[in-house]
Amino acid sequence: MIEIEETHALVDPVVIAAFEGWNDAADAASAAVDHLINVWGARVVATIDPEDFYDFQVNRPMVGTDERGHRRLTWPTTQIAVCSPPDLDRDIILVRGLEPNMRWRQFCAEILAGVDDLGGQLVVTLGALLADTPHTRPIPVNGTATEPELVDRLQLDSPSYEGPTGIVGVLQDACVKLDIPAVSYWAAVPHYVAQPPCPKATLALVNQLEELLQCAIPLGDLPEDARAWERGVDELASEDEDIADYVRALEETRDTTDLPEASGEAIAREFERYLRRRSEDS
């Protein structure tokens, strides 16, 4: 079983988890957790033993040199980190790793046992999928929750997807069986620019977490990276008339639907986010 390093008692912690692989188009979700680890100075308190869960011919260990010049082998794994954001009245548990190759139920059981040891109150999983959405418009983020109270309070949907699933879906199901409240947010990445990174989708997920946690998260270079990514895709599209026509068709389809980004509630949320960030910067 997973061993948790000794740490201070966490205050009403929220768990935020993302896994590279099938659930993570353009690495957008795992990049969001990486961003949180960096800006919040998270400390790793547990590491899953990879021997039981990963096929090392699929996810190979990496060899390199550390800051002291020593050769070091790094194994693919999943880590649990903790942090105490300065402008939040609760702690955060961050789970970051790779979708396992085997023993998914045991993997989820170990993750949730570690989360339980740390006192986790709510599990939030992040994912990203490829979709028919234009890169020139706001990245859609869809959210679901496992409990009616969360669905109502956060104005989310109950899970309704049917079909193949990844470790995020299996982890959410494990939460349901253990009566652990769970929320899942998925960003839609334009399928014609599927190669990582996609900072615009990562930024959309971070903004969604700001709304969930009701706090301003330091964004660092994410906004400029998102703008640079969009300019780069604009340039690529301008060089290929077929792609340019396709993007225009996606834009027309998107603009003729009832966009949540244009709704009064969405505008109010953006204004509240602006006020929180303004208060943080003052």
From TrEMBL:
It comes from Nocardioides eburneus. This is PAC2 family protein. SUPFAM superfamilies: Cgl1923-like. InterPro entries: Proteasome_assmbl_chaperone_2, PSMG2_sf, Rv2714-like. Coiled coil: none annotated.
